[in-house]
Amino acid sequence: MKLVISGIVFLACLFNGTKEGSARLLDRNCGISTIDDIEAHIHDGKITTIRENPWMVKISTKNGLSISFVCSGILITTRLVLTAAHCIFFNDTYLHLGDYLIVDPEPDCTSGKCIPKAYNYRADMKFTHRNYKGRLSKFDIGMYRMEKEVTYSEYVRPICLLVDDQILEAKKFNITGWGKTKQEQPVNRTLQTGTVYPLNSSFCDAKYSTYTDRSQICVGSNSIGSCEGDSGGPLSSMMPYENTNRTFLYGLVSFGSDKCSKESGLSVLTNVTHYMKWIENVIKASEIQYAGNGGFWHKIAEVAL
Question: What family is it from (predicted)?
Answer without folding.
Answer: Belongs to the peptidase S1 family. CLIP subfamily.
